[in-house]
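Hi team,

Below is the intake form for Phage capsid-like C-terminal domain-containing protein from Schleiferilactobacillus shenzhenensis LY-73. Please confirm the fields before the structure is written into the shared record.

FORM ID: S-0412
PROTEIN: Phage capsid-like C-terminal domain-containing protein
ORGANISM: Schleiferilactobacillus shenzhenensis LY-73
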Amino acid sequence: MTIDEKLAALTKEIDEKRAQVAPLTQEVRDLAEKAESDEEFAAAKEKRAALDQLNDAIKQDEERANLYKQAIKGQEQPNPTAVKTAPVADERRAEINAAIRSKSGGQDIVIPRELLRAGAASDTPTTTGITSPDAAPTIPVDISYVPQREVQTVVDLKPFVNVFAAKSASGKYPVLKNVTDTLHTVGELEKNPALGKPQFSDVEWAVATYRGAIPLSQESIDDSAADLIGIVNANAQQLVRNTNNAAIATVLKTFPAKTIGSVDDLKTINNVDLDPAYTRAIVASASFYNALDTLKDGNGRYLLQDSITSPSGKTVLGIPVVVVSDTTFGAAGEAHAFIGDIKRAVLFADRAELTVRWVDNDLYGQYLRAGIRFGVAKADSAAGFFLTYTASTPTLSK
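The structure came back. Fields below:
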């Protein structure tokens, strides 16, 4: 098997392993959420260990693939720092004369320069040898025709919000408010007092359409060494995910703003400002997560702890953390986060999701159309806060 064939086989193996990561991650999350006994929790940990082994195997295969690529590309050899020159013409003439004198009684015989081997005085490998540029027309250039996708943030925020199937282009969605009333004390045979009525708030939503199309010539489909239609389809799915995340992030940024500069500020928001009835989660930008990752308690232990149920694998103050790119909440380098009950905070009206491909006879090609219809609205304005970390200190400090 040639090195090109080894690289192609290894690349296919890496793609197959990457395809197993998302289902296995979901399986770990499902097992952890349903775990109630020690045996079930142990099964979840075992499945998480299998996920870690799969990620390690992918990393090792990628390192091997890089070695194959370097071997195919080749390494330029450095030029010698010093080259020993050949004897000059006069020295060669002296050697020839010495040999002839031994045959002619010691009489010197002068040999004309033109009788010497042409170029003997400049017979230097670096100038007279054949190098790679000289042989360029005969040296093949290896080109890979299977593109590698740039690594980007792939967290999908849609599963974390309240998603319902919309049946029309707009409407209202009732959200039941938290119950604060209590039952009354009543004596024997006394008339029952009226119970507090459930209180609802209507969340208005409207569906918007997001769509686009790209034509593919039939020639490009037929002649492409890679699966061109599959590449464009995968790109369309990533566009859908990015669109969902951008719409959800826009709503999260409208929640009451809080500025923090220490872990005590974060604890105050979690313990006092946010109602205990809400489920906690933190959706953090990469810069905010980096600040969290440096937090330590009074004993020097990091507050960010491992968790098999958290999407990022970490929790802080017992709150699971979801990490998105900085540009989801702002500009690169800005530290922002949402803390609160994201499912009660955001309402996602899912109307339709389309990815259609069809043949156009006039163009001799195919059109790929991607379209989604959904609406996003703030459901409960008290369900969370939008945080900004101030860089007054190098890291969040206690």
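SUMMARY LINE: The domain at 205-389 is CATH 3.90.1690.10 (phage-related protein like fold).

Thanks, M.
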